[in-house]
Amino acid sequence: QVQLVESGGGLVQPGGSLRLSCAASGFTLDTYGVGWFRQAPGKEREGVSWISRSDGSTYNADAVKGRFTITRDNAKNTVYLQMNSLRREKRAVYYCATDAPTSPSANGRVIAGMGVWFGTWGQGTQVTVSS
Questions:
Q1: Which of 14, 15, 18, 30 is 20 to 30 Å from the Cα of 127, by its Cα?
Q2: Which of 26, 79, 77, 76 is nearest to 48 (CA)?
Q3: Within its chain, how far is the Cα of 22 from the centroid?
């Protein structure tokens, strides 16, 4: 079964850290660019970080620059998002997706400023930063 599964979310205090995981099954993740996205209640889904399929170059949204790092572990077919110095915010659900369809059933979503990304867009993993 071709899918992406996000994990690692939770409740963390302001200033704390979390590491999110995006594990792929049914396909080889390193042949795709992979992005992390988040959506808070009542807000549009937004791009957070992206890692290229080719040279491993990364992009981080201005809101997370210097605090979030996206990396790959090809041996584990997984992409991670290390989030440090987390800021107080309402809960947001984080999703990962690829820059091209991984299967005929991949669900494409337009992300503002980042084009179309493809993923399960299922439950994601929820992050809440609160004391």
A1: 30
A2: 79
A3: 7
pLDDT tens digits for 56-69? 899 999 999 999 99
Q: Which residue has the tokens 């993993």?
A: 125
64 vs 31: CA distance, rounded Å: 25
* d(C-alpha 35, C-alpha 58), whole Å: 9
Residue type for position 52: S
| Residue 54: CB atoms within 10 Å | 7
Please check the confidence at residue 106 and state whether its pLDDT lies above 90. no
pLDDT in tens, 81-103: 999 999 998 799 999 999 999 98
pLDDT in tens, 10-32: 999 999 999 999 999 999 999 99
The two tokens of residue 112 are 């503002």
The residue ranking higher by pLDDT, 80 or 111, is 80
User: Hey, what amino acid is at 78?
Assistant: T
Is residue 39 classed as helix, strand or coil in its secondary structure? strand
Q: Across the beta sheet with 18-25, what order do the strands follow?
A: 3-7, 18-25, 78-83, 68-73
